[in-house]
Automatic annotation (TrEMBL), chain A:
This is Phosphate transport system permease protein PstA. The lineage of its organism: Bacteria, Bacillati, Actinomycetota, Actinomycetes, Streptosporangiales. One of its GO terms (cellular component) is plasma membrane. Pfam families: BPD_transp_1. It comes from Sinosporangium album. It comes from the Bacteria.
Automatic annotation (TrEMBL), chain B:
GO terms for cellular component: membrane. Keywords: ATP-binding, Nucleotide-binding, Translocase, Transport. It holds the Pfam family ABC_tran. SUPFAM superfamilies: P-loop containing nucleoside triphosphate hydrolases. The lineage of its organism: Bacteria, Bacillati, Actinomycetota, Actinomycetes, Streptosporangiales. PROSITE patterns: ABC_TRANSPORTER_1, ABC_TRANSPORTER_2. GO terms for biological process: phosphate ion transmembrane transport. Residues 5-247 form the ABC transporter domain. This is Phosphate transport system ATP-binding protein.
Amino acid sequence: MSIQTISTGRRAKDTIVRGLVYLAFAIAVVPLVSVVYLVIKNGAERFDLEFLLHSMRNIGARDAGGGAYHAILGTLEQVALASLMSVPIGILTAIYLVEYGGNGRLANAIRFFVDVMTGIPSVVAGLFILAFWVLYLGQSFSGFAGALALAVLMMPTVVRSAEEMLKLVPSDLREASYALGVPRWRTIVKVVLPTAFTGIITGVMLAVARVTGETAPLLLTVFFTDSINADPFSGPQMGLPLYVFDQAGRPNDTAIDRAWAGALTLILIVMLLNLAARLIARWRSPATGR
Amino acid sequence: MAKQIQVSGLDAYYGSNKAIEDISMTIEPRSVTAFIGPSGCGKSTFLRTLNRMHEVIPGARVEGKVMLDADDLYAPGVDPVSVRRTIGMVFQRPNPFPTMSIYENVAAGLRLNGRISKARADEIVERSLKGANLWNEVKDRLNKPGAGLSGGQQQRLCIARAIAVQPQVLLMDEPCSALDPISTLAIEDLIAELKDEFTIVIVTHNMQQAARVSDRTAFFNLAAQGQPGKLVEMDETTNMFTNPSEKATEDYITGRFG
Ligand SMILES: Nc1ncnc2c1ncn2[C@@H]1O[C@H](COP(=O)(O)OP(=O)(O)O)[C@@H](O)[C@H]1O
Ligand SMILES: [Mg+2]
């Protein structure tokens, strides 16, 4: 056997496949870039302090001005409440599945239902809360009702991603902890969860990002308002996706501009939340600082 | 500090599969006992029955008796957590906690089991790291992650972590098999020092290592694949390596199988 140079055929194949990979990447990026570009370009028109600090109260159908403060506030409150409900339950469920349930019947049943929940269309989650919370229990439309619907949507994502992350924690570490005479629950709290922390945060952020832009469940649960309502537990609230939906449906340019600015705000909020999560994750993982 | 372990008629199962059968032996305090034998004969399994780590695996169970001086480790009502505090363990692969610094790793056993003062923790960390011959190498970077050390240093860190909770017995499952020769030597020296204070049991694949570090050696074997492992014989290491009483032991030690 002698050492050979790379044949022309192989070189050509390499070039072709490389080209295809770049092409596929470009095609995948085109919609993303064009959406971001359009939203920034059209949203910049009205993305100003007035927009961020004012509601739509007393702004007539054709008036310029007005803003999304009431919607931003509503979205932040609804997503925060939804996270407060779904993240602890989701993580505890994942802990049960990985640390206690194993392959038992209950654990597999939970996995099955979580998978089914993942596939629930968001409008169905909204309908469920409408039927259960508003119609059956007789509660009013409110930011909290919206948060309930969002929590239903977030929960399965949190469970599944946290489960995957907990499974990645090597059993070596659990055993090392047991061998030091540390009880199981403390091992989970002090060793397993911190080790999986970064991954769990990422999963939670994905879930948050997913529900922040949901419109349909809000439509059925928080109702609708043009005024500021800071109390998520009583009375109709607004949400940013709902705001965009509403403004975009109006015929005049001033409303369309507001819709674009709303969309830009929504994207920025999700980005900021992601950034915050990354910072938290970096701050919490000393193992990278050699 | 160090205590004697007496095992009688011990069987260990994985589900319905019996991994080791009818093992009886006495492990003397303040000495090093080596377990040798071909792969799969149940050395690790037996070692893990000694501090009730075996039952951590789903479906795994143990029958028989293990006495630590006068305490029956498998008596009903005995808390396995307290057994593991008394009998520490070092694993084959170094496994420092990745989210913790060197200092936190050593202090982990104390801190995870309750509050202790900073001064007391400092003292124990220093003593344990010195005990594991690691202090001089890490004293200037105690707050750096434990995972940033070399393999041999990580293993000594794990030993420091294990002795920090002041166990009576230290179990080591092939602690050098993932290490280079220099690190191996460092650990062997350490074992020789630690035996003044602890009862040490070490599983090893390396005959020279067993001969170098241990006072007594136990040879395990299995009759055939799929059969449970058994204790063939146990004796002073010097006797075992010069004139073993069983043919199988001699064959294994001289490298004719295993
Ligand atoms: N976690 C486990 N689950 C099921 N069987 C196991 C497990 N660990 C070990 N065994 C079985 O137990 C027997 C003894 O294994 P082990 O104690 O690891 O042997 P050694 O340490 O001497 O190489 C082997 O047949 C092995 O397949
Ligand atoms: Mg083994």
